[in-house]
Design goal:
The protein has 130 residues and is an alpha/beta fold. The chain has 5 helices and 5 strands, in the order E-H-E-H-E-H-E-H-E-H. It is 47% helix and 18% strand. Strands 2-1-3-4-5 form a 5-stranded parallel sheet, sandwiched between helices. 32% of the residues are buried.
């Protein structure tokens, strides 16, 4: 079975490592980047199956990154999970407006993140007929 590819976009190195270890331990292929522009370049080079996206990034915020992903015909079907410390209802609503498929706040429970990812990847594979 083909391993799903996850792009983790997180500017805090310790969290990037933690998330990468978590997803790799479950058999996913993980690529990690630390900025929004770097994320868009990585997606253009090789589209992942799912994106885990922080919102507070140094060069471009996660809302903007998500908007770019969802406005692009080639990438709009890629599920985006926002994983962020921003907890206000306004931020959650903004996430929905730009097309996020899920919104999880930090600190997060690994089990919850994995459940959401597995559900989204399962839904994605059904759409693609895999």
């Amino acid at each position: 079975m083909e391993k799903n590819r996850i792009l983790v976009v997180e500017d805090e190195e310790s969290l990037l490592k933690l998330e990468s270890i978590l997803f790799t331990s479950k058999g996913y292929q993980v690529t990690g980047v630390r900025g929004g522009k770097e994320a868009l370049a990585a997606i253009a080079e090789q589209a992942p199956d799912l994106i885990v996206l922080d919102l507070m990034l140094p060069d471009m915020d996660g809302f903007e990154v998500c908007r770019h992903i969802k406005e692009n015909e080639a990438t709009r079907v890629i599920p985006v999970v926002m994983l962020t410390a921003k907890k206000s209802s306004r931020d959650l609503e903004h996430g929905k407006q730009v097309g996020a498929d899920a919104y999880i706040t930090k600190p997060f429970k690994s089990v919850k993140v994995l459940e959401v990812i597995e559900e989204l990847l399962g839904n994605q594979q059904e759409k693609e007929g895999r």
